[in-house]
């Protein structure tokens, strides 16, 4: 492993521990040349996934991009980081287990929306508004109308806004 600080090739593992329910290994490393410490994360990858974009372009699947999108949708929502990581891990496992190496971006978006819908209605609406590129208020209205009553805050332990005044 190359040192990210000086580029030296000789780095030493000082500590390893399992993370993410055993789905990854976190390693603390130290560079033999500059003495800097850094962390690496090692995950199992069943197969190389390629995302087929709407315009036909093919790009390597980026787990971090999916994780960022999920985190942005869940920002300031009552869903802890561990649960967010489990959502991302579950989505990646589903994609890898599908047996396909080429995955349409639309399928990834729909899977993420389904996962968020099951966890937090507000995060689902946030993600859907970006993913479906809402440009009109009517699109939001239709999405909210299609949701069952109470789904928008089903995962939230907080009372709804009008109930907080009491």
Structure notes:
A hairpin with a 4-residue loop joins strand 1 and strand 2. The longest helix is centred in the middle third of the chain and has 17 residues, at 81-97. The protein contains six helices and six strands. Strands 1-2-3 form a three-stranded antiparallel sheet, with no helix packed on it. It has 166 residues and is an alpha+beta fold. It has helices spanning 63-73, 81-97, 105-119, 121-131, 137-146, 161-164; strands at 11-19, 24-31, 37-43, 50-52, 58-60, 102-104. Helices cover 41% and strands 20% of the residues.
Short description:
This protein is α+β, with helices and mostly antiparallel strands and 166 residues long.
> Helix proportion of residues, in percent?
40-55%
Radius of gyration: 20 Å
User: Could you say which structural class the secondary elements and strand pairing correspond to?
Assistant: alpha+beta
Portion in strands:
15-25%
Mean pLDDT: 82
Poorly predicted ranges: 151-166
Order of strands, widest sheet: 1-2-3
In angstroms, what separates the terminal alpha carbons? 57 Å
Count of extended strands: 6
Q: What is the tally of helical segments? A: 6
Order of helices and strands: EEEEEHHEHHHH
Shape: elongated
Largest sheet features: 3 strands, antiparallel
């Amino acid at each position: 492993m190359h040192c990210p600080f000086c580029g030296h090739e000789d780095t030493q593992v000082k500590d390893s521990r399992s993370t993410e329910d055993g789905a990854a290994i976190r390693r603390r490393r130290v560079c033999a040349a500059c003495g800097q410490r850094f962390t690496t994360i090692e995950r199992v990858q069943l197969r190389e996934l390629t995302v087929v974009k709407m315009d036909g372009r093919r790009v390597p699947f980026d787990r971090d991009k999916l994780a960022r999108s999920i985190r942005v949708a869940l920002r300031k929502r009552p869903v802890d980081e561990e649960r967010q990581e489990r959502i991302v891990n579950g989505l990646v496992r589903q994609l890898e287990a599908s047996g396909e190496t080429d995955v349409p971006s639309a399928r990834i978006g729909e899977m993420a929306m389904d996962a968020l819908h099951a966890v937090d209605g507000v995060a689902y609406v946030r993600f859907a508004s970006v993913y479906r590129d809402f440009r009109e208020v009517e699109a939001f209205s239709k999405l909210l109308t299609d949701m069952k009553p109470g789904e928008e805050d089903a995962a939230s332990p907080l009372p709804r806004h009008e109930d907080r005044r009491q």
